[in-house]
């Protein structure tokens, strides 16, 4: 990573935003990162015969999954506004892009509430990476952006995602019925308050200050 990339573009400082943990680095993907992320999507992100996503983007062949991944991230960058944003990071483990972790919000300046979503390359499952990358964005949300609440949700049969949420103390926040490939399925909604967040030991946020206006956060906000 060059010094210019580390600082981020003057006109798009999100390219310099990073969250580091004892094992991971989360950053807005470069074009090379995005290529690697598309490769992870092509390799597969969940067991065949299951569908953990409300939008079934992974229900396609490898090449189409790769293209959808690239196009999705381009769409997030082009539609970003302080009133509505999705910050989707590339997650690096031992120098390799292994998945993506996002937080999103609408009217964050007022609501101080974020939601999260993620996926991890299938061959990296079972190493605790999913838990650590969720912790990283919770650290960014609560400690960096001054969020009051974090929400999440998962299909009732997505045991891995629900287990991660339970580890952090998310509380039940109701249910919702979704159409999953033509069949009704229950989604469990979950909520974590800032007061119940235990914090992330050894987690660091880099390059946040110039990004704050893009998140709808004033640098002098009393909530930070």
How would you summarize what this structure contains?
The protein has 224 residues and is of the alpha+beta class. 29% of the residues lie in helices and 30% in strands. The longest helix has 18 residues, at 62-79.
Structure characterization notes:
The chain has helices spanning 3-7, 31-43, 62-79, 108-111, 129-144, 159-167, and strands spanning 18-20, 24-27, 84-93, 96-106, 113-120, 149-155, 171-180, 183-193, 204-206. With 224 residues, it is α+β, with helices and mostly antiparallel strands. It has a single domain (3-200), classed as Gcn5-related N-acetyltransferase (GNAT) (Aminopeptidase, 3-Layer(aba) Sandwich). A nine-stranded mixed β-sheet has the order 7-8-6-5-4-3-2-1-9, with helices on both faces. Strand 7 (171-180) and strand 8 form a beta hairpin. Helix 2 (31-43) packs antiparallel against helix 3 (62-79). It comes from Streptosporangium algeriense. One of its GO terms (molecular function) is acyltransferase activity. Keywords: Acyltransferase, Transferase.
Observed structural traits:
disordered N terminus, Aminopeptidase, Acyl_CoA_acyltransferase, alpha+beta, 6 helices, single chain, acyltransferase
In CATH, the topology is named Aminopeptidase
- Total strands: 9
Q: Briefly, what CATH class? A: Alpha Beta
Helical content stands at 25-40%
Q: Indicate how many domains the architecture comprises.
A: 1
Tell me, briefly, the overall form: globular
Identify low-pLDDT runs: 1-5
The main sheet comes to: 9 strands, mixed
Number of helices: 6
- Which percent band covers the strand fraction? 25-35%
> What is the CATH superfamily label?
Gcn5-related N-acetyltransferase (GNAT)
Mean pLDDT: 89
Distance between the termini: 29 Å
User: Compute the gyration radius: what is it?
Assistant: 17 Å
Helix-strand category: alpha+beta
Helix and strand run: HEEHHEEHEHEHEEE
GO molecular function: acyltransferase activity
Keywords: Acyltransferase, Transferase
EC number: 2.3.-.-
Domain N-acetyltransferase: 24-195
